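Check these lines:
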Amino acid sequence: DTLLNTQVLNDRDVIIGPLYNRQFNELVDFYKYEKRKKLISPLSYKQVSGNYTNSYQVVPIPQIQVNALTNYISDIYDDQRLVVIGQESERKLINFTKRKLDVLSYNNAQYVIFEDDQMPTKEDVKQFFVAEENIVFVPSNDRAFVSRLLPVLGSLRDTSFIVAGLDSWNRFENLDMDDLVKLNVHLPSVFLQKNDSMHADFVINFHEKFRSYPSKYSYAAYKQ
């Protein structure tokens, strides 16, 4: 609020941030008609850019991720049995997933939707899976729901899984690594650190200057 009121940003052509949705939306609302400005949300996985042509976000919104992941599932697993798991508060995203799979003629999908206050249990989910390989897609950005669901799936002994989730899971620090490995969790990552020359040069220069190695957010900021 102070920055906007002091007008110190008025002569800036590119503004990266703020990090949080509410603050970024205030920035967008303030400068929404200034076409020459580029307003960039660097980390948010929720849609923040509205309908204004001068605002952008680096992380693709969930619908774009679902579009890519359903294409991937359809290409790789070729209409194998798929279980889509979500919760009621994210039904719009589940319905979007269903429409995409229908367009792809993926006819072997089953949908399991939990109430928001319902804690998924082993008894709730085991009926949907078979002993051989199970393909599971969880189109959810809810940290609490995901962190409850994965240990339940991981507790199903003698059951093989491949689980696909969203980019936001990369920030869920409470997820158990054993569950992620056992369930063969696949996640898209916007901030993937590749073994290319740009990444290598960045790491070398960063270490020379700061005597430490950069985090994924440092590299994400450098790329942006």
In short: The first strand starts at residue 14 and ends at 16. Residues 45 and 62 are 7 Å apart (CA to CA). The chain has a mean pLDDT of 88.
